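User:
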Amino acid sequence: MEPSGQTKLLEEVEQLQSRVTTLEETLMQCRLEKEQFQTALGQSEAHLKLALDQTAQKHLVFLAEASKVLAATLDYETTLKTITRLVVPHLADFCAVDLLQKNHVIERVAITHIDPVKEALVLRKGLIRTFDPNTSFGPPKALRTGQPELLSQPIESSAVNSALNSEQLAILKALNFHSYICAPLVARGHSLGTITFGLSESSRRYVPSDLELVQELALRIAQAVDNAQLYREAQEAIHMREEFLSLAAHELKTPLTGLRGYAQLLNRQLDKGDLSDLARFRRALDSILEQSDRLTHLVSRLLDVSRLDLGWLVIQPSVTDLTGLVEGVVRLAQANPNKHRVILKASDIPLVVMLDPIRFEQVVISLVDNAIKYSPEGGQVELQLDWLRDSDTITLRVTDQGLGIPVEHRQHIFDRFYQAHRGAYLGGMGLGLHIAQQIVTLHGGQITAEFPEEGGTHFIVTLPGNLIYNAPLNFTTPLDKEV
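Assistant: Predicted structure:
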């Protein structure tokens, strides 16, 4: 090899050695950086795990505290207010609980905001105290779907705008939520209400992973509310039972006292051998029969309640002159010395239907007795029987001039053992209207009540037109009918 060639080769070898050295140094640097990265990654994972563990621990502590609050008392209104104060600021800047009431209205029972000024605004305005159940936003939607709703952006959608009235929308905009969760409160398969979380003051936003904690809290709240409501219902049932037993004892004692008195009278007369006053004997026996009938009536009502509870109350429809049936009840009421005027408005054309005559007579008697009981002495009780062709319904309207029903009691008038005027005992066990409603329902009809401003009560029995056995072609408008 030429000297010049050797020199060139040596130069190339030196260059290769230099490049190898550089690569080795780079490799060592990469290994070092890898080790440093792995160390940092391990530390980050440890920190993340620690942070997650700490967050989970905080959530567990929060849920434990919430459970402690929920278990402290059965007064869930007070408990829920405490829960909202526990949520704020741990999970939200705003928290509210809404419960579904018996009248199907959603009512806000607890609310807390991190800003006292905004909380005062909401409390003063009564933010969304009631909701349209068909609304596509907020508690109504969560109740309807049974699923939580999460929004991670400002609440300004058209769906929200259309769901609220102007005042509600103004308050919602003042609260300025940029993130929001609404979860249903579900217990034993039933939706009891909702809990709402809102973020406005803090910078964080809700993410799907937050739903787990929210739903766990919602479950515990729902169980507490359900237990409290069941306890209240049990207490109300016990109270109702005690009142019923008191009323039943009073109702049963009156005829028993009469029976005993007349039996003792007859026994004394027989002991004396005095059978001369047969008219007196007859009156005593008539009174015994009357009181026996009263006892039979009371026992029959109690048996009807038991049959209703067991699902054993059945009807036996047959061809019935409904006009004649109502006339018979009116005659019976007119024959009693109750100093009330009982009149009937009905067509001269008999209305023949398929229903249970014995059970439906029981309905009419209950309505008339109720009207007489709560009407002033000498007052008028009016019955009107009609067939409305347009709606193909049969209606029986019973109108009195009585005490009326206080507004707060009206939703309970068909409840078992319920009496609207308990302060002034007027007799009865609060079963008549309840049983009447059930009998009418078994016939496919309904009983409703109207409360005119001038006083009194209108009970309207509505039956389907398909009960008519033979539709009268010349059925006339009801007129005052002599009975």
